[in-house]
Fold:
Amino acid sequence: MSSRRDAVHDILRSSASFRSAQDVYAQLRSDGAKIGLTTVYRALQALADGGMVDVLRTDDGESVYRACTTDSHHHHLVCRQCGSTVEVAGPDVERWAEAVGAEHGFTEVTHTVEVFGTCAECSVSRTSR
Amino acid sequence: MSSRRDAVHDILRSSASFRSAQDVYAQLRSDGAKIGLTTVYRALQALADGGMVDVLRTDDGESVYRACTTDSHHHHLVCRQCGSTVEVAGPDVERWAEAVGAEHGFTEVTHTVEVFGTCAECSVSRTSR
DNA sequence: GGCAAAATGAAAACGGTTGTCAAAATCGAC
DNA sequence: GTCGATTTTGACAACCGTTTTCATTTTGCC
Ligand SMILES: [Zn+2]
Ligand SMILES: [Zn+2]
Ligand SMILES: [Zn+2]
Ligand SMILES: [Zn+2]
Structure:
């Protein structure tokens, strides 16, 4: 179908970290791909809508995308420096969120949970500097 | 000190839901206050920096602020419809986040956790429509 | 009062994202 | 293959929340 969408998807699949639209666009262009920024935005949106990629917002309001390997519900442990990400499961957290919602009479309860830190690699390069 | 900052703070303290800068600005103006939008942004920023108010980002990228009553670390259960918010504690979640970080060699671990749902009141008005 | 420092706000700039719309690629008959 | 209809594309403009700028006003202090 859409080779451009596949190209965008491929970039994400080959990256361990969350990537922004402009980021993906820049890499595609430097890889020689003939694609416009608008199309990258549309592709990412479509992939996110279809549940093919995960999205989250950075502190400075940028949307970043990642092709996670786990199909089931999960969360992320993200390195603040290098952006490398580990998918993590938290059954206790899932239950806790549901319970908290129910306890206060809330329905259709969802949650956003992200964990940030400095990964081992970045810790080393920082302390050894 | 700053009477404008207090005015902004007061608006937040008198509201149970998270409010945006423009939102607070509109209310202050309609209350007859003589204040500029820039000052509202600055006041909210200062309050957030000083830990006087909590901030979170909505799905559409807007920063919203709330003067929480709890001084200690907590999270929020937010109604998707009316925005009314309950402060919730989750000791288990705190421990889980720390553990997950440590398990993967991450240091300086922080987390963002928010629970969303439809509050009891909004559920009623929805079903009875 | 007089003066330096801080606060204020109107307007412009910013930056990520979305809308527009005409051109290009793709599809589906014939 | 041709030709028209449909979809996709992308340069550019518009959008919108937020930040910066900078001249003016207010505040704190003597
Ligand atoms: Zn790292
Ligand atoms: Zn979860
Ligand atoms: Zn509600
Ligand atoms: Zn917490």
Q: What stands out?
A: Residues 2, 4, 35-39, 42, 61 of chain A lie near DNA strand D (CB under 10 Å from a C1').
